[in-house]
Amino acid sequence: MESLSNRKKVVSNKKMTFMEKMYFPAILGGMWITLKHVFKKHNTVKYPEVKREFAPVYRGQHVLKRDEEGRENCTACGLCAVACPAEAITMTSEERKKGEEHLYREEKYATTYEINMLRCIFCGLCEEACPKEAIFLTDRIVPTYFERNDFIYGKDKLVEPVDQRVDISKRQLTGKRPA
């Protein structure tokens, strides 16, 4: 009876030579490959003892910037969320109240701003879409966690602290900020 897939193979019972029976050529071939790899340059580094330099165009963890006076730059316009192809950014906005001029630069601000790091593909389109230069991708590595909820970054993780500014001067110029 012929099979339907026509993948039938005829198996031959070829007699092995004495050398093949001892697997000597195969063992020598394997040792030759191992010996070649001993003297090759390693493609990996021993992290965390050795760290590689990042390229200037590396896109790591996001940061929401503040202006020189410590006010948040984000005005919750939503262009970053619209530009995000992975739909990783969500936000809600609110109007600034009297007395909050020292916290928010514009009349509207983001009450909640969240980035789902599990969805983010670090494409940088949010950075390009932002007209206020509020969001940047830095050279910091996103830490690892065991729980999925830990990867949803809110304003507590995204907004840069007033006393610990994040340096973005090594990032490529977008043309929106002075060189």
TrEMBL record:
Keywords: 4Fe-4S, Cell inner membrane, Cell membrane, Iron, Iron-sulfur, Membrane, Metal-binding, NAD, Quinone, Repeat, Translocase, Ubiquinone. [4Fe-4S] cluster 2 binds at C84, C120, C123, C126. One of its GO terms (biological process) is aerobic respiration. Residues 62-94, 111-140 form the 4Fe-4S ferredoxin-type domain. Its main location: membrane. Its EC number is 7.1.1.-. Binds 2 [4Fe-4S] clusters per subunit. It holds the Pfam family Fer4_7. [4Fe-4S] cluster 1 binds at C74, C77, C80, C130. It is a peripheral membrane protein. NDH-1 is composed of 14 different subunits. Subunits NuoA, H, J, K, L, M, N constitute the membrane sector of the complex. HAMAP family: NDH1_NuoI. NDH-1 shuttles electrons from NADH, via FMN and iron-sulfur (Fe-S) centers, to quinones in the respiratory chain. The immediate electron acceptor for the enzyme in this species is believed to be ubiquinone. Couples the redox reaction to proton translocation (for every two electrons transferred, four hydrogen ions are translocated across the cytoplasmic membrane), and thus conserves the redox energy in a proton gradient. This is NADH-quinone oxidoreductase subunit I. It comes from Fluviicola taffensis (strain DSM 16823 / NCIMB 13979 / RW262). The lineage of its organism: Bacteria, Pseudomonadati, Bacteroidota, Flavobacteriia, Flavobacteriales. The gene is nuoI.
